[in-house]
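[step 3/7] fold_predict: job queued, chain A
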Amino acid sequence: MKTCDDVIHRIRWDESLNQDDFFVGYEDRFVGLIEKPFSDFTWNIEDAAGDDPFNFSVPFHRVTYFKYKTQKVWDKTERLDLVFGSTGSQVTICDVIQKWADEN
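[step 4/7] structure written:
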């Protein structure tokens, strides 16, 4: 299964993907599971390391899932990978986006 880091890089650098269409579910130490838009996070390690209150980051090991709009496309606990299709489904993020476009 591809890692959280792989998914982040794909969303950040694949020009065919709109970062605003993705959401991240992560485990907060005090509150529990929280979901936020992908674009709310500071994914650059150098930027996230400072004390700037405008930078929001979370350790990669706390990321539980990614969603495209409302559909989960990567889930660590379910071993789901619809971004790369690395868990045997052969479904990739391009298929998910196309299906979403066809249905909406």
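[step 5/7] annotate
The first strand starts at residue 22 and ends at 28.
DSSP finds three helices and five strands in the chain.
exit 0
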